[in-house]
Amino acid sequence: MRIATWLSRLSGFSIAILLTAAVPATAADTCAFDKGTFRLVEDDSFTFTMLPPPPGSAAKLAQAEITRGDKAILKGFLTASQGFSRIYFVPDDPALEDSNLALTFLDKGLRNSTDKADYMVIQNLPADMYYKTRELWTEHPINGEIWVRASCP
User: Fold this and answer.
1) In sequence order, what are the residues at sequence separation of 6 or more whose Cβ sits closer than 8 angstroms to the Cβ of residue 142?
2) pLDDT higher than threshold 70 for residue 143
């Protein structure tokens, strides 16, 4: 009975803080860049999903695909520059064969982080799709470069 009386005296803000402190961190809070999925901020019908790398591959960090709804529209893989200073998405599409798209992973504080990747920026994907794969872009116009974490396995 005392607990119920004590809780009734707390403000809504105090209860929110109490519940936040009591709830354990989720897996998404510590998700590495090459795991899970991201959704495009400007159009959440687009999903960028990380898949395990091919067996025995030293160069490919992960396989990846961009889907819209249930349809895969662009597949490829992630690779890194020498020394891992930059991570790239390399589309598996003949029209985009020279498009090594730089990826930037950011944590919740918008600092570079591959250990706790909450956001991903894919530089030049909309422009490359527009100029090099006009038919694909017309059918699936990706207008945006910022992706937010949607899930983490």
Assistant:
1) 40, 43, 46, 66, 125, 126, 129
2) yes
Task: Please tell me the predicted confidence (pLDDT) of residue 1.
Answer: 44
Query: CA–CA separation, 114 vs 126, rounded Å?
Result: 23
CA 149 – CA 131 distance, rounded (Å): 28
Residue 124 and residue 99: Cα distance in Å, rounded?
9
User: Which residue in the block uniquely carries the two structure tokens 């597949």?
Assistant: 75
Spatial CA neighbour of 77 closest among 69, 140, 93: 93
pLDDT tens, position by position, 111-128? 998 889 999 999 899 999
37 close to 51: Cβ distance less than 8 angstroms = no
